[in-house]
Model the fold of this input.
Amino acid sequence: MTVKSVRDALNEALFQEMRRDPSVIVMGEDVSGGAGGSSGSRDAAGGIFGVTKGLITEFGEHRVIDTPISESAIIGLANGAALTGMRPVAELMFADFVGVAMDQIYNQLAKFRYMFGGKAKAPVVVRMSMGAGMNAGAQHSQTIYSMLSAVPGLKVVVPSNPADAKGMLAAAIRDDDPVIFLEHKALYSTKGEVPDGEYIAPLHGANLVQSGKDATVVTLGRMVPFSQKASAKLAEEGITFDLIDLRSTSPIDEELILESLSLTGRLVVVDESNPMCSIASEIAAIAAEKGFSSLRGPVIRVTAPHTPVPFARELERMYVPGPDRIAAAIRKAVKGE
Amino acid sequence: MTVKSVRDALNEALFQEMRRDPSVIVMGEDVSGGAGGSSGSRDAAGGIFGVTKGLITEFGEHRVIDTPISESAIIGLANGAALTGMRPVAELMFADFVGVAMDQIYNQLAKFRYMFGGKAKAPVVVRMSMGAGMNAGAQHSQTIYSMLSAVPGLKVVVPSNPADAKGMLAAAIRDDDPVIFLEHKALYSTKGEVPDGEYIAPLHGANLVQSGKDATVVTLGRMVPFSQKASAKLAEEGITFDLIDLRSTSPIDEELILESLSLTGRLVVVDESNPMCSIASEIAAIAAEKGFSSLRGPVIRVTAPHTPVPFARELERMYVPGPDRIAAAIRKAVKGE
Amino acid sequence: MQQSRTDILRAYRQMRMIREFEEKLHIENRSGEIAGFTHLYAGQEAIAVGICEHLTDRDYISSTHRGHGHCIAKGCDPRLMMHEIYGRADGLCKGRGGSMHIADIDKGMLGANGIVGGGPPIAVGAALTCLARGDGSVSVSFGGGGSSNQGTVFEAMNMAVVLKLPKIFVFELNGYSEHTGETYMIGSDIVQRTEGFGLPVFQADGFDYFSVHQAMADALEHVRAGKGPCALVAEATRYFGHFEGDPQNYRAKDEVKGLRETRDALLHFRARVTEAGPLDAAELDAIDSEVAAFIEDCVTSAKAGPTPGPEVMLADVYADYQDKP
Amino acid sequence: MQQSRTDILRAYRQMRMIREFEEKLHIENRSGEIAGFTHLYAGQEAIAVGICEHLTDRDYISSTHRGHGHCIAKGCDPRLMMHEIYGRADGLCKGRGGSMHIADIDKGMLGANGIVGGGPPIAVGAALTCLARGDGSVSVSFGGGGSSNQGTVFEAMNMAVVLKLPKIFVFELNGYSEHTGETYMIGSDIVQRTEGFGLPVFQADGFDYFSVHQAMADALEHVRAGKGPCALVAEATRYFGHFEGDPQNYRAKDEVKGLRETRDALLHFRARVTEAGPLDAAELDAIDSEVAAFIEDCVTSAKAGPTPGPEVMLADVYADYQDKP
Ligand SMILES: Cc1ncc(C[n+]2csc(CCOP(=O)(O)OP(=O)(O)O)c2C)c(N)n1
Ligand SMILES: Cc1ncc(C[n+]2csc(CCOP(=O)(O)OP(=O)(O)O)c2C)c(N)n1
Ligand SMILES: [Mg+2]
Ligand SMILES: [Mg+2]
Done:
């Protein structure tokens, strides 16, 4: 184990998989950078967040492919390469940009295998940074995972810590299905213990981060550390809860959620997305449908409001569910109004 | 009142609004058709489903604009025209095509007003046909409304009958916000009474189609007539229910749903979409959160499976929730397992 | 380019196969037994065959909503295709795809596509694989004139040029994009526009197999010399409506009739290889009847094929797990 | 084109305003008080101003992530812009938009845009309004060289040609698209590629206000004669990184230094109008100090501006109702 940032853990996974399997290729805007620049350096960017840093030096421009600003063609590039035997890792930079590549993701990539009678496989990983926290405004701060989890054929994962970042990216690359791999931009510098050497973490299955007795709190991404902060506050009040890190929003680990709910009887879902048709909604629905007999009170959803992500520091801070709002919701779930 | 098809009702609304307001314009592929054809007819198509038939003859090609196959530019055309004073009605033909125009819809149109400080308005109507029922396969049969209802700034409506088709399209055109107007392709030929002359139906607010005592059934689009069929079966067994036609999936009329639920105690949601992060999920979540004290049993979601829409007749019939599955779910909700 | 007797016979047989497949579908469609949207390729056979006769299973193509011709030309089994179009469990895609989604990865056929402009970006990706292999294989996208205006297609062209990929963009100009003329919606000359992207354009008469075959030979030479991608533009017509059931109000009544008489790729081929060439009419007649019988049989077996059940509906969404029923 | 003394003074003032705005932001940015991504336009002033000096509030522009220059040139209030960039409730967009989303519909400014290629389709729509009005108004989209590869931009160009709209596509070639050279990602010559779409291209030296101003005059003449859309391509450079904080590893150390000395649009303008022209340096110096004081004051007032509260967050999602808190 070594303490590393999410950024470095992701970078390590890419090196690991590219060394292991020559069919793994990386593509996107500025994944290396520097082409046509005046400094002569081809490792000038290494991805806008530095996740692909150094790859071009070791693997060259045939495996680390800088592209024009043409997101449909970037995903198309990955799709066609995957159908014909490669394992592409495409980067979309900001998850918000799915809008200019959506067809290639949801009508093509997600559906190949099914429409084509099960013969095709499309092992594409689409990496994107997501989420608020950098005051990047309405078009650079969205979460996107609900929209894509709704699409049959896609797997969608949201690692919340460096170990999962490394292990799940490696697993995503080895997986035969398309995987949408969402990296929370406010977590890139978060550090934690990461297994050394070859490491794979399962794509499926949620993680019980901590156990408690009063409630089940289901969450993901940056909301995991925020919920942990809420836990510290509530512990002083004698409130403890099961904290579940979803890790994957498609598929969802229903079993773990329902099992925990059967013990606690209270459910709070914390989701950075807008509320409607969100992962929070989905989990509340699972509870209302399959965990009803366990429920001892209303489910509470803690989400962003139904507004675009606002720019100003104060506004974004209000927009994103923070430890205080999370703690208040859990308190309410446990103690009633 | 005159008995008319949904298709004709929509066409009537377009004539009504275009006559009334010269800033209303229509754009899309083959909205008239015939340009560059050898027959010389400019009203050769009138939209692939005939909804815009005849408009070119009365309003001319400056108000009824045939476009290249360039969906991003079609929505862009509407967006820019709307910001500068027009009331465009853009047609996307099949809702599935949002993938090639998604950015203009969800990052631009939906967010203008908010991002631009409330000064801008963008009264765009985006008309699309949606849904299964014509064996059109995985890329021509999706419902899309959950994906778009999740987006703050968009209103999303799904009329289920000819009167609403006419009245809501007119209301959508007069509305100052962007409205996604979804027409179920299997309902175009459905007939019903339609008010003559100028007619506006509110965009917001669900409709209590029929009342009953044992359950609340919330549904929309083609699932409304299917639920009515289920009702006929169940009535013989002595089961009656409140049938709520959502009409609008953004915003959702929570009041009506919760009020009904407080009387019946049982909730079944019927949604033609895939299950995850669907409108069915959203409504189940609303019940679990705000209607929990009314709930006397698990919420049941009746949806399509988590698969792309399959092609073959038998497969599509299994895929779409039909009257039998709906009846079975209601029976289960009312009588338990 | 010199072609052997066998080559010529095979090319004719492929063209006849497509024509027969489509004419038969057109008739069968009236019975109401065929579900969904069917877009027929009849009239454009010389393009699909003239191009695909150069290709092997190691080469890739992407196709369109009007895909039957490309599929057959690329080696998909017409019987399995017919079963697919009839929605059978033993169809090429188990009845889940239908006419608009026929694909056969083993044959290098990366799918018909319900989304106009969906194919070219995918074919560009396949070209990346071809380049990596370095075995001279190529990737070809087919598209209509209407499709040439889709942003995804423009992006694909520029991407292929930037990455110098072995990729050929084929544009089949059949005059219409649904109910609208292609000329209306292409704001400039498609050849010049394509050249503006840095793609050399090889032009062919889309009614003439030999013309297309030669243009494709030139295109391949360009691509295999490592000079990057190029395009092939061919004019043609479709004999039927945009989809089966299209009243074709945009078309003069006898537009097709005239073309069938004067610009039929099969008649043209036949004349050329029998008059000046190495074959006699009887050989071609034999192919015609053999193919007709075969297609007849495909329809018969498709009609009797097994209907898919719930297990087909739920399978293959993912490689490693399946949705609960 | 002949320009009056007043015209020239105003143009200089606008260019200086942009330069000062950006240089000041660059300095202030180090304090950490400015949130989010800031992309500076300094170095490209002659383009925004050379173009917008021809426009009135009835004409429209769409802009990009690098939008401050276009906003100022089109008449947005720099003070309100500064408040916006500082995230103030009294900013031009109430602090909800930020640097990347500044807009002012009343001024015909249809928004900066965080999505590369987001603006041109919108500007094409505005051109539809201009055409309908028939008052000679036009719509202009600004975009960088990198943006020219986005499918939405290609679609917008073809759409404008097909509909013969009064629309001008401006491409500002500043050498880079983020960390990558623009020449790497434009597979062919951008002028030829644009012409291939049927758009006449007017070229200008992006460091020279007068050159841009003249090219825009020609472009307007073309468009107002009803000949349909056209394009304007100008080379320039950006003095700063792609965004504030960019280490610029792709750039030779002294690339900008040299350009600042030899190719500065303001120095060039100043030399031209004082040496041969009607102004003297003192007048320009006066503008410089006036603008510097004004921008200083904008920053001071922005820093002291009111912070937005929850009511700002929840407002204006819809015109007729508001989300519950
Ligand atoms: C993205 C998208 N837009 C629109 C359509 C509807 N559509 C199907 S085929 C077609 C016309 C295509 O014309 P062309 O490319 O010339 O091909 P052809 O039909 O002539 O073979 C259109 C508009 C679609 N399937 N996908
Ligand atoms: C759709 C989309 N893709 C990528 C980005 C990230 N991005 C922002 S600016 C930029 C480069 C734009 O280059 P260019 O058009 O030359 O404009 P410049 O920055 O040089 O002004 C990129 C890739 C984005 N914002 N939107
Ligand atoms: Mg065509
Ligand atoms: Mg640039």
Observations:
- Chain B has two domains: 2-194, 207-335.
- The two ends of chain B are 45 Å apart (CA to CA).
- Chain B is about 35% helix and 20% strand.
